[in-house]
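Budget justification, computational time. The allocation requested in the original proposal was used primarily to generate structure tokens for proteins on the priority list. As evidence of use, we reproduce two of the resulting records. The first is shown immediately below.
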Amino acid sequence: MAPDQARGSVLVDPDSVQQLLDLEQIKQLKARYCRFIDTKQWRRLRALFTDETRFEGLGSAPTGSDANTFVEGISTRLRDAVSIHHCHMPEIVFTGPATARGVWAMMDYLEFPEGTSPREVPGHRGFYGFGHYEEEYRKHGGEWKISFLRLTRLRIDPLADDRPASRPGLLSASEDWLSGVT
């Protein structure tokens, strides 16, 4: 038995600890992605991507779009919409010391007000969607960013026009709730 084991100490591999920290940072990156879309914080959303990020499978930007085109498209498309994005059960693998890939199960809800577009299906004002995000990440200056994002869909269920509309007057999220908290 090694002397450290005899005293009850456990040797920790610093690389493993860093990988756990990186994993948590990537999870928080994805959480901010969903929150910034749903709270319409477009400038903050753009900051989550590398300049080289490319997008696939999104209704708000054509395949191959860059981050600026994606943010411009989603901010226009969802300006008046109620959107709710949930991402779950991440599978993340590191492909290098500053690169990683991930798959996230996702669900989104999009509801467009009457008289606005896009309304994908006539007689419906939005949809529930289910699928996966496939992403790549790159660490820039100690901060993880999304460098590739693909949305795949398993199912889309339209919201009929006769579905009750969202209740007005709900409390909005605080944009700076986490600012300055240590």
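The second record produced under the same allocation is shown here.
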Amino acid sequence: MKVAALGDATLLAELGQRVDTALNTRALALAAALSKRRDVREAVAGYGSVVVHYDPEQVTYKGLSTAIQKMVHAKPPHAEPGRLHRIPVVYDGPDLQEVAAELKLSVEEIIRLHTEPIYRCFMIGFVPGWAYLGPLPEKLRLPRRRVPRTHVPAGSVAMAGAQTGVYPLPTPGGWHLLGRTSVKFFLPNSDPPTLLRTGDRVRFFAT
């Protein structure tokens, strides 16, 4: 557990640095607990950390740091399970055959492994609506593409490293494209404007 200042009214509480569901659960619970404090303006969870924006007129950096340490070590906060989303996927991506060859697996096995887990939404970022989902099964893990694409269509279902995700908008991208979905992940007329929120769960199924 490390706490560091990010400015005169913001701090970072870091619980760990790995892509791990249990660690992310702790970060989400800590953020939820901190959000209930009157001296905290906003608490935003990441993979294994929480950025805390606080009111310097109500609490000092040292005082809040001490309070966070006590919260984490005395009684770890409890996190409510996120919503479960079932996402249909047509597995016909341009990288599917290449991924299968590189991993020495059949296309059918790639699809089976990708649809097997219930993924955690660790964080929203990169572009509006992009959700970092994981952890990916060990057998599917590959580094990013050596040469990123300059254009990836919206709805593309992709993976890289220990994570998977859906491109919500047409953007450049270096992840391996496995398929596509018609589900919209960026909802500009909604509040919040994203389908997924940090802590939500996702399960893909083939169509």
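A brief technical remark on that second record: The mean pLDDT is 94.
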